[in-house]
Specification:
Elements (H helix, E strand, L loop, with lengths): L4 H4 L3 H17 L12 H15 L8 H8 L6 H17 L4 H12 L2 H4 L3
Helix pairs in contact: 2-3, 2-5, 5-6
Length: 119
């Protein structure tokens, strides 16, 4: 039986570290930081850790309807989306995730672009 990306890197504990690093980058980036002004980052990190865990083959799932509804009011543009994808890849690389696995996760992120980008 083949391991999922989630299992291969130690599960939720590793994903949580990746996402914490990711949000450090996000909050330091002039393109992405404004989207998180006033956001409870502890809650956001928890939410995003669960989403990325699911994308990596771990437990949980998010429907297209849910993703679209949550992001609809945020006015996310293509540039911000692409920046976020790049920062996620950078954080995963920082935590020892292989380029092949990073590409697979970013691909899963990218196929949901139409649900997240609204302008």
């Amino acid at each position: 039986m083949q391991q999922t990306i989630f299992e291969r890197y130690g599960g939720f504990a590793t994903v949580r570290k990746v996402i914490s690093t990711f949000y450090d980058y996000v909050l330091d980036d002039e393109t992405t930081a404004p989207y998180f002004a006033g956001v409870d980052m502890k809650r956001q990190i928890d939410h995003q850790s669960k989403f990325v865990s699911a994308v990596m083959g771990g437990p949980g799932s998010y429907t297209d309807d849910h993703l679209q509804r949550v992001h609809a009011r945020l006015g996310i543009d293509k540039h911000a989306f692409d920046t976020i994808a790049g920062l996620l890849a950078e954080a995963m690389e920082d935590h020892g995730i292989s380029k092949v696995d990073i590409a697979a996760v970013v691909h899963e992120f990218n196929i949901r672009e139409h649900l997240i980008v609204t302008r």
